[in-house]
Write a structure and sequence with these properties.
Rossmann fold; Four Helix Bundle (Hemerythrin (Met), subunit A); about 45% helix; Gyrase A, domain 2; about 450 residues
Amino acid sequence: MHDVIAAVATGGKVPCAIGILRLSGEGCARVADKVFSLDCGLSLTDAPNRKLLLGKLRDRQGRLIDQAMAVISRAPHSYTGEDTVELQCHGSPAVLAAGLEALFAAGARQALPGEFTKRAFLNGQLDLTQAEAVVDLIDAESADAAANAAGQLGGALLARIDPVYQELTDLCSHFHAVLDYPDEDIEDFGIEELAETLRRALAALEQMLSTFAQGRHLKHGVKAVLLGRPNAGKSSLLNALAGFERVIVTEIAGTTRDTVEEPVRIGRVLLRLTDTAGIREASDQIEALGVARSEAAAREAELAIFVCDASEPLNEEDRRAMEAAKAAPRHLAVLNKSDLPPCVCESDLPFGTVISLSAKSGENLDALKQTLEAWFADGAVCDGSILTNARQFGAITRAAEAIRCAQSALQGGMTPDAVLTDAEAAMQALGEVTGRTVREDITNRIFERFCVGK
């Protein structure tokens, strides 16, 4: 990590107000001095720490390409823990590209995806939970997801894992002391005390694991599907929830022939809402494929919304769609077209939750939104304590299982070394979450998810 890396830290692909060129590594100020001159006459090498200064950016031919600002943050008080320089330019992609090319000619190299944050992790500025929170914050699609990622970046998840890790460390060190120095006057460990330590550790881990389902919804959204017979109003309902004409709507039954997905925000809930072809006996091969995809989408969904045309009597197509909807973990029914004389009432539908509305006029649409928000967002405290990362979930699951094995060994009267082995396995798994024991290949794979410049 002794070389100087550089990258465009903002989008860089489209014009914007501000664009940032970022450098990190020992000697990065000397590299920047070759392409950037301060108006005050100082070099960046001698510039005061963390102070924005005006200057001029030149390309590799020495031509002036922008008037910009520069700031240097010296090690160890920087994002990466190394000397860093940021050149804050106007956001022309041409200016940023020319400036970056000049920095490469001056001795920097292109930063790899996530290399700035990887250096922050390797230099002890961030633990692995905080590093992974950076990319979650960048990718956040809702305010709640951003708030939870910001909490994890602030160390909220580490604060929950670290006490468990420390208790297991104390437990293992006590075991080792007793086993390795039997002739020393070391207080033996009591079975009840050990059992209580393991119980507390398991309870803490299980509580963390219990938040993962909510965390998946927070990070990726709720996989939801609209089901019903042709012309029931599924596409109209998707358009009403999305707030714009996402799907073509006509009076012709079977207009939607394929699945159409749209992310829809309903209050604090993000739905990955899929409109489907109407479920019925298909009249041709194309429609048959659409119906098959509809039923496949229903099997994969976490939420199914059965849409019924309440102005017409129920038929076999409705019943087929209802059965598909009821297979989802969460499901409800919508009596659509409430603006027309009704032929179907709530008691005719085998659902615990039935909402009557008009997708066309928007009448009672808020009742559906309130129900969905209550199901998926009520009580959510997005302070960083919600587990959203599948890798972390897997590691904590292994830690919890190792502690259960330790408990079984203890209750079965096995020798202390058996308990010690399981407790150390739990520590190893927790270390993978925070980065204490993570392998290099896992580290590389984690930071490959990042964008260049971060």
